[in-house]
Amino acid sequence: MDDLGVDHAIVCPVRTRGYHLAASNEAIAEAVSASGGRLTGVARVDPLLGDDACAELERALEALGLRGLFLHPWEETFRIADGCVAPVVEVARQHRVPVIVAAGYPWLSEALQVGALARRFPDVTFIATNGLQLNISGLGQIDAELAIAENENLLIQTSGVYREDFIEGIARRFGAHRVLYASGYPIFDPRLEIRRVQWAAFAMPDEAAILGGNAAAVFALAEG
Fold first, then answer.
1. Full-prediction pTM beyond 0.70?
2. Stretch 190-218: mean pLDDT, rounded?
3. Exposure b/e, 56-85, CB count within 10 A at least 16 = b
4. Is 166 exposed, middle or buried (0-12, 13-18, 19+ CB in 10 A)?
């Protein structure tokens, strides 16, 4: 962060070696506490655990001070639009925090599936990783654009989106506020991920919004 001039970062738990994610949420909370205000953490739960997942999310948001929900359908193996997801999203809705979805995974979190969930919760902000798709081409790209067009509450992250023209097109068609820079670190190199935004043809206000202003608004960072 220091080398790249990054003032603030949103951090989320990786998959724990055990089945329950509570320890990972606690590790994130500890990192946030030790960061001197430079990190904001989000909680991760497995919706397949039902009431236990809701209880863990409540604990993470209230006792641990985390500021959002991260769902990874591929690693926890659930479909993002299935009924088991609604209860944990409802907890996020009640706490007025955003939901980040690891998106683009075949059968589990493809663009239209993420869009279907966003449509069920129009007052929740959803942030899709990987530009809502992994291939960034063909019907997947069309589905991503359809999902974004149909859901004002659906935003995308830029990490790993190797087609700058796709990022440009989303910003131009739907507004730069629908696009958030994400590093995807440590899987991706943040130096390249920043360049993805800078190489795209944005006016300076849009570039600044995508690189940080939009995330600050979504996560209410100005409120502390």
1. yes
2. 92
3. bbbbbbeebebbbbbbbbbebebbbbeeeb
4. buried
Confidence of residue 78 (pLDDT cuts 50, 70, 90): very high
- 224 pLDDT above the threshold of 70: no
Q: Which amino acid type is present at position 145?
A: E
CB 68 within 8 A of CB 103: no
- Which CATH fold would you assign to the domain 9-219? TIM Barrel (3.20.20)
Respond yes or no on whether the N-terminal peptide bond of residue 13 is cis (omega within 30° of 0). no
Can you read off the two tokens belonging to residue 48? 């397949």
At position 194, the amino acid (one-letter code) is I
Q: pLDDT digit string (tens) for 138-184?
A: 888 899 999 999 999 999 999 989 888 999 999 999 999 999 999 99
Residues 6+ apart with CB under 8 A from 164: 196, 199, 200
Tokens 């849009």 belong to residue: 206
Which token pair is 202? 């944005």
Asked if the model's pLDDT at residue 33 lies above 60, the reply is: yes
Range 20-39 average pLDDT: 95
> How far apart, in whole angstroms, are the C-alpha atoms of residue 209 and residue 212?
5
Calpha distance 150→2 (Å, rounded): 38
Domain boundaries, the chain: 9-219
Report the DSSP beta bridge partners of residue 39: 9
Tokens 């006792």: give the residue.
Answer: 63
